[in-house]
Amino acid sequence: MIVVQMGNYGSPRIAQGSTRRVSDLANFYPHLWVYDKATGEMLVALPLPANATGSPITYMAGGKQYIVFPVGGGPLVEELVTVSL
User: Fold this and answer.
1) CA 47, 38, 64: angle at the middle one, nearest 5?
2) Nearby residues of 24 by Cβ (< 8 Å), 6 or more positions away
3) What confidence tens digit (pLDDT) does each residue in 34-48 have?
4) Neighbours of 3 (CB within 10 A)
5) pTM here?
């Protein structure tokens, strides 16, 4: 089982110079947690450069499993993070 920290939304605020409400993704502990599906044991706690902003995708290539997910957004650099199992 794979758990990717998605962050949590802070209180809405009003964007400067408009009447538009903005919700910020605020989490200061972004991590990827990988658990053994059979035992529930945590296998990896990998720090991420920013909050995950989308769902993970998994695929197989050359007999190896890969997991890819987007991080960042807003004022943070957006990038894809790939890990292999």
Assistant:
1) 60
2) 9, 10, 13, 74
3) 778 888 888 888 888
4) 14
5) 0.58
Provide the CB-side half-sphere exposure for 48 (13 A, CA).
Answer: 29
Q: What is the domain partition of the chain in residue ranges?
A: 2-84
Strands annotated E in the chain = 2-4, 8-9, 13-14, 21-22, 25-26, 31-35, 42-47, 57-61, 64-73, 76-84
- State the residue for tokens 């949590």: 8
Alpha-carbon distances of 66 from 16, 26, 27, 60, 75, rounded to whole Å: 41, 27, 25, 6, 28
